TrEMBL record:
Record-linked PANTHER family: TRANSCRIPTIONAL REGULATOR, MARR FAMILY, TRANSCRIPTIONAL REPRESSOR MPRA
SUPFAM superfamilies: Winged helix' DNA-binding domain (SSF46785)
Keyword Zinc: no
Species for this entry: Microbacterium suwonense
Pfam family of the protein (one): MarR_2
Keyword list, A-Z: DNA-binding, Transcription, Transcription regulation
SMART domains reported in the protein's UniProt record: HTH_MARR (SM00347)
Record's protein name: Transcriptional regulator
Keyword check for DNA-binding: yes
Domain HTH marR-type: 30-163
Recorded superkingdom: Bacteria
């Protein structure tokens, strides 16, 4: 697919101009923030999707595989996957079912909680997520489209937005090792 030519104007700047012209001064900056972040998400997700396409993975499927690969044993309770990915349980369950169907994850009963399930990464899942991670690192993460200083500033700004929205709290202090 050919990449579209850049527009001659920034449509978000034009939207802000229109907001101001319509007397919505109090909301113009916020509208610009929201639509800018949403557009950036679209641009980044398109790059991620392109990098994951050869592996037949969506970003949701990749995230579950990567989270399991990061765990000590390659196994986590489904509820822990839901909590760590901050996604609705129904979405994670649906994603897990597709990963099980494809032989990338096993879904097993929790040994101590009959109502819970464990997700376990298979060897095929581990191989796939490692290859997909190399592709993402090369094609997206090593060059997200902004320089390192801007990346650090952006991550800090978005972290404050997320914290203010109740996404997380400051971690408890860790005691010094004995």
């Amino acid at each position: 697919m050919a990449r579209p030519r850049p527009l001659s104007i920034d449509p978000l700047a034009e939207a802000k101009r229109q907001w101001l012209a319509h007397g919505w001064e109090d909301a113009a900056d916020g509208m610009t923030v929201v639509t800018s972040v949403m557009r950036a998400q679209q641009l980044l997700l398109a790059r991620v999707d392109a990098a994951l396409k050869p592996f037949a993975l969506s970003f949701a499927r990749y995230e579950v595989l990567r989270l399991l690969a990061f765990s000590r044993e390659g196994t986590l309770p489904l509820s822990s996957v839901v909590a760590r990915l901050q996604v609705h349980a129904t979405s994670v369950t649906s994603t897990a079912e597709r990963l099980v169907r494809d032989g990338l994850v096993l879904r097993e009963p929790h040994p101590h909680d009959g109502r819970a399930a464990l997700l376990t990464l298979t060897d095929a899942g581990r191989d796939l997520v490692e290859r997909a991670t190399r592709a993402l690192n090369t094609e997206v993460f090593s060059n997200p489209g902004i320089d390192a200083d801007d990346a650090t500033a952006l991550v800090g700004i978005v972290a404050r937005l997320r914290k203010n929205a109740g996404d997380f709290t400051d971690p408890r202090p860790v005691p010094d090792p004995l």
